[in-house]
Amino acid sequence: MHRLTYTTIVALLVIAAVAVLAGFGGGGVINVYADEIEDLQREIEEKQRAIDELERKAGEYQEHVDDQQHYAATLRGQINEFNAEISGLERRIALTQAKIGRTQLEIKKTELEIAERVEGVRQSHEQMAEIVRQVHKKESESMVEILLSHRDLSDFFIQLEVRETLQEGLSERLTELKRLTAELEERRGVLGDERDRLAAEREEVGGQRIVLASQRQRQQGLLSETREEEARYQALLSQAEAQRKAINEEVYNLERRLREALDPGSVPPDSGDFIWPAANFRLTQGYGCLRSSWARRSYSSCDGGAGGWHNGLDLAAPLGTPIYAVNDGRIIGVGNNPRGYGLWVAIEHANGLVSSVGHLSAQLVSVGQFVTKGQTIARMGSTGFSTGSHTHFIIFAPRTYQEVRSRISGTVPIGATVEPRNYLP
């Protein structure tokens, strides 16, 4: 039997260590989760295809809504509109639930990837510990001992080179271990983000279901009020139109006097501190004396009859779209004006300005509550006198906000209005 030399033993140790360390990045670690992760990825891709199809159908529905932004001229037309809106809400609920399913799969996949990474780090730690023990054992010998144990300088320098190679490999793999540990923390951060997204999607479904129930209630209310008779609907429509014009005139006269008495110095300077109260909207009407035929026909006369006065911005988006607080503030008004703004909410902000949103399908806050910028405070709708799902967004100057009991219908927020875009991005 051949006797192994000291140098040969150390060289074999280095070869073994390098072989272990070569697989340190993952290839040398037993991966018990690979098949399950691959299966989850396929499920996620299938779920995404279903989401793409649901989004396509939701887009088709929204095109229909965009074409129908008017009060239906017949009872059957109005019921058809209710049915379309209800169908659209049901589609969006199904879409959000599909996204929830996808997010749950992504969370499970991320958890497995984290477990895989933890196991890899654990195995690598064990391998590193063994190599460190071997290095320490060899380093315990002094240079003199190593020199005396070799018959010639050639063996001595080979041994030194072997030790340096092992040390360099160890240093590189320690750096790799740090990188893998950092990746593990990053995956844990991704998992936290995915869980937050899941909570938001579940909250979105809850909000959409509230709107769906409200819309079905509105439909049943209309059927009950008209007894499904066209003549009754036409009478109701004429009455609503007359009441809307009366409320518009009432609000216009009150606010005109407040605007005329307003000290310009009391209005905060223009800024971009506010955010828009909704996302993915269409701006359908601006602020001020609008010179469109619709404005002249629908709003109080301004500029010698050349236009109609509109005291806010109209933002159109699908029924149930989240409505956000445009900045931090305190809820100072929550009300209903059935023949005008419908359901509305008002917030007072730190600079004294008051923001108000109307035509809501759901109010999610109460008077006295403090809200933060971007917080969902309501859902977009078509309550009051409205030509389709949108929100009427108003900004009142400081110390001018009031709530008045309309002679016609419900409670109305009024004040000296200013151009909302002066405070938007």
Please describe what this structure looks like.
The chain is α+β, with helices and mostly antiparallel strands. 55% of the residues lie in helices and 16% in strands. It is built from seven helices and 15 strands. The chain has helices at residues 6-22, 34-66, 75-139, 143-148, 153-226, 230-261, 293-298, and strands at residues 282-285, 288-290, 301-302, 307-310, 313-316, 322-324, 329-337, 342-348, 354-363, 370-371, 376-380, 390-396, 402-405, 411-414, 417-418. The strands form three sheets. Strands 1, 5, 6, 7, 8, 9, 10, 11, 12 and 15 form a ten-stranded antiparallel beta sheet that branches. β3 and β4 form a beta hairpin. α1 (6-22) packs antiparallel against α3 (75-139), α1 runs parallel beside α5 and α3 (75-139) packs antiparallel against α5 (153-226). The protein is elongated and about 95 Å long. The termini are far apart. The model is unreliable at 1-13 and 18-29 (pLDDT under 50).
Task: Quickly list its features.
425 residues, 10-stranded antiparallel sheet, disordered N terminus
Topology:
Elements: H1 6-22, H2 34-66, H3 75-139, H4 143-148, H5 153-226, H6 230-261, E1 282-285, E2 288-290, H7 293-298, E3 301-302, E4 307-310, E5 313-316, E6 322-324, E7 329-337, E8 342-348, E9 354-363, E10 370-371, E11 376-380, E12 390-396, E13 402-405, E14 411-414, E15 417-418
Antiparallel strand pairs: 1-5, 2-4, 3-4, 5-12, 6-11, 7-8, 7-10, 8-9, 9-11, 9-12, 12-15, 13-14
